[in-house]
Design brief:
Number of helices: 14
Helix content: 40-55%
Shape: globular
CATH class of the largest domain: Alpha Beta
Oligomer: single chain
CATH superfamily of the largest domain: P-loop containing nucleotide triphosphate hydrolases
Number of strands: 11
Mean pLDDT: 87
Structural class: alpha/beta
Low-confidence stretches: none
Strand order of the largest sheet: 2-5-8-1-9
CATH architecture of the largest domain: 3-Layer(aba) Sandwich
Number of domains: 2
């Protein structure tokens, strides 16, 4: 007997719709991996975030192709992509846009809104933690609401709209750590690690030749929007729903069956973590060519979903405790 679905049966998409979307998305993934060598897990998680309709935070040292990845995703998915280098002197108007006073042909003066670089479909916020809290909070509204407010007027952003931000984990001098409220707006925190030897060899040869690989368009923005709508209609079994609830609720200190959580964590993940996992496991299943997510998807995405939604307290950090080790213990609860 098949497992009962936790989603309404009338919302389940047809098999044909799923197969069409899977073929398009898998083709897009292959096109990105032709350009971004040795980072298959990173490509998968970035595509998962976009398919789920969310934003991603890429954390890694310089030189690991984070900028190239975002540009490749923009080209392959048919999105209008832009890049903003965040610096301490960057002002909100430099991102959102501003109003200018113009004089028309009739001699009358009026304000005209000049949109900033945030008016795109895929924004790369490079080294986002170098901007001031004021500028970071200006981007927060755009990420959460899909619009910006300038001079009391609301301006809707293009659809779809996604932010892929980068952060350098080793150079913190002169930076402004992202507040918890903004970190929570990122669906996934994606760790970008060094490639293995074989992948780095392929990269070395491919990128230093006369014609380095270039991304090729595979999807249109409308196709991505349809795939995102389909993700929300994929059925999710009760076992997966229970695994998500067990994982997230066990990560809250004071309520957890794990001693490490109750002892070492300052705070744990809220309900938005459950929502993020629910969307992300559906997107990962579609990306993998499956009709519904499994508990394995929950395990695979536990780290990217939880690591920026929970934090060790001061004593645990002083003793050298590891947040990743706590997440591993949480994942073992649903093994």
């Amino acid at each position: 007997m098949s497992e009962p679905a936790a989603t309404p049966p009338d919302g389940v998409p047809s098999l044909k719709d799923i197969e069409i979307a899977q073929a398009a998305i898998q083709g897009a993934r292959a096109a990105v991996e032709d350009v971004i060598l040795g980072q298959s897990a990173v490509v998968e998680q970035a595509l998962t975030a976009l398919l789920a309709g969310g934003h991603g935070l890429l954390v890694g040292v310089p030189g690991l192709a984070k900028t190239r990845l975002v540009h490749a995703l923009g080209v392959v998915l048919g999105l209008d992509d832009r890049r903003v280098q965040f610096t301490p002197d960057l002002m909100p108007a430099d991102i959102l846009g501003s109003e200018v006073l113009e004089e028309g042909a009739d001699g009358r003066r009026r304000f005209r809104f000049l949109p900033g670089p945030v008016f795109c479909q895929l924004l790369m916020a490079d080294e986002i933690n170098r901007a001031s809290p004021r500028t970071q909070s200006a981007l927060l509204q755009a990420m959460q609401e899909g619009r910006v407010s300038v001079a009391g007027q609301a301006h809707p952003l293009p659809h779809p709209f996604h932010v892929l931000a980068t952060q350098n984990p080793i150079e913190q001098e002169g930076t402004y750590p992202l507040p918890e409220a903004q970190l929570d707006r990122f669906l996934l925190m994606i760790r970008v690690d060094y490639p293995d030897r074989a992948a780095e060899r392929d990269m070395l040869i491919a990128t230093t030749g006369p014609a380095p690989p270039q991304p090729r368009p595979c999807l249109a923005a409308g196709e991505l929007a349809r795939a995102q709508a389909l993700v929300r209609r994929l059925p999710v079994g009760e076992q997966v729903v229970e695994a998500i609830l067990t994982l997230v609720r066990a990560g809250r200190p004071g309520d957890s069956p794990l001693e490490a959580v109750n002892r070492d964590l300052a705070w744990g993940p809220g309900p938005r973590a459950s929502q993020a996992l629910m969307l992300a496991v559906r997107a990962r299943a579609l990306l993998a060519g499956r009709l519904a997510p499994s508990v394995d998807d929950v395990r695979a995405l536990a780290g990217p979903v939880l690591r920026h939604r929970m934090a060790l307290d001061y004593a645990a950090r002083a003793e050298g405790a590891s947040l990743e080790a706590v997440i591993d213990q949480l994942t073992d609860l649903i093994a």
